[in-house]
Design brief:
7-stranded mixed β-sheet; 243 residues; alpha/beta; 7 strands; Rossmann fold; globular
């Protein structure tokens, strides 16, 4: 597969402009570097089946960036990306929010290893990739209730995801969940989880990712009250017995 850098950057640029997001040539270069490194390491680690340049641009890069129009840029924020995989969306968002601190969490050691190499390669500060499970880390004092924003893409159904994410948020913090067309059914099933964890759905928005035919929605959840210490339950239980 031959990849033309100029073509790649041009495609990226067009997509980012359609999203109405400001960018620098340095950010385009970083995404190009990201793509090349991802391609090379993916042969070893098999992190994603999506590797064609145009597919990566729309399904990974633009799909990650689409939420920037919903984010408040005032003050520096502390982000957590749960189940980050190869860094989507957290790593991509960091490149466009350089002043914010990002924590990328994944239960796969090989993906975390890839991300830490990429962070080093791109010379990024204020970003850290951690190997672990949300259920365990949410019990630690320095993680619990300490994030302004939590994001997650393609990790679990909403009722499960809420139990992973909400305990990490500060009261007043927001979670951004990327969802497909079944999002309304997921919202209905998550009513009890929202109530139990002290959160509510602030908004659900249809997203328009340039070139992507699949329907994309963003569910924004706000944390209103501290979460009871018994949540999240131990590893594996949220998925087995959703709230």
């Amino acid at each position: 597969m031959e990849i033309n850098k100029q073509k790649f950057i041009q495609k990226l640029k067009e997509g980012i402009e359609v999203l109405n997001i400001s960018y620098s040539s340095e950010q385009l270069e970083q995404l190009w570097e990201y793509y090349l490194f991802f391609l090379e390491e993916n042969k070893k680690y098999n992190m994603s089946t999506i590797t064609e340049p145009e597919e990566v641009i729309k399904k990974h890069f633009l799909d990650s960036l689409v939420i920037l129009n919903q984010v408040d840029f005032e003050d520096r924020k502390r982000w957590l990306d749960i189940g980050t995989g190869a860094g989507f969306p957290g790593m991509v968002l960091k490149l466009f929010l350089p002043g914010d601190s990002f924590y990328l969490l994944d239960s796969s050691a090989k993906k975390v290893n890839f991300l830490n190499q990429l962070i080093y390669k791109l010379g990024l500060k204020g970003i850290d990739a951690t190997h672990g499970r949300a259920e365990d880390l949410a019990k630690l004092e320095e993680w619990r209730g300490s994030f302004d924003y939590v994001c997650s893409r393609a990790v679990a159904s909403l009722n499960v995801l809420l139990e992973y994410a909400v305990p990490f948020l500060k009261v007043g913090g927001l979670a951004y969940f990327y969802k497909g067309p079944e999002y309304q059914a997921e919202i209905t099933e998550a009513r009890s989880a929202l109530e139990t964890l002290g959160a509510e759905i602030k908004e659900s928005i249809e997203l328009d990712v340039p070139g992507l035919e699949a329907e994309r929605y963003l569910i924004i959840v706000e944390k209103n009250d501290p979460t009871d210490n018994k949540y999240p339950r131990r590893a594996g239980i949220p998925k087995k017995r959703p709230l």
